[in-house]
Amino acid sequence: MKWNFSIAAFFAVLAMSFPAFAGFGIYSVGGKVGLDVVQSNDTRQLFTLQADVASVFTPRLHLELAGESGNGADLDGTNIQVRGGNLILKYIWPNARRTAFAYLGFGFGVTRIRRFLISSLVNTYQSTLHLVLLGMEKHTMQGRLKGFVEMRFIFSDIEDASSIRVAFGLGFNVKKP
Fold first, then answer.
1. What is the pTM assigned to this prediction?
2. CATH number at residue 47
3. By the 8 A CB rule, do 63 and 39 touch?
4. N or C: which end of the chain has fewer CB within 10 A?
5. How many structural domains comprise the chain?
6. What confidence tens digit (pLDDT) does each residue in 144-165 have?
7. How would DSSP label each residue in 86-99?
8. Whole-number Cα distances in Å, 143 to 92, 93, 176
């Protein structure tokens, strides 16, 4: 877990070292509903709150913070609760009218998995690497509301917990991207 903090601190220092291109503030906030599929019998439903909090190096490179909560079953069918957070660096491509955006990204996260066993609760912490394979945002004409869908691959330090996530959601733009 120490390396997750180190990596986050590294990106923060890099972002602050380029003040001409860094724009700190809340660009957008939103919520997503998603499904993580590890294997056919191991799925997790997730709700995520996210915020784009900075543009880094260039106005097209955004930093996204997210917290997530969910539940599901693990590989042996045990019910689990999932809580976590992640930090994603995403590169966006706008269309000519800036009403639709495609994005790719990567980032790091930490997840706590709580298993309900017969006589006790067991907590497991894992670090994760997130690769956003494809993301799409569609903004309203006024530019305030947006809908989005994304697909990401999540590598876990626990080998059998890597997954594919599909999520969709709605958000609110505070600043124009």
1. 0.79
2. 2.40.160.20
3. no
4. N
5. 1
6. 888 999 999 988 877 566 788 8
7. EEEEEEEEE-TTSS
8. 16, 16, 7
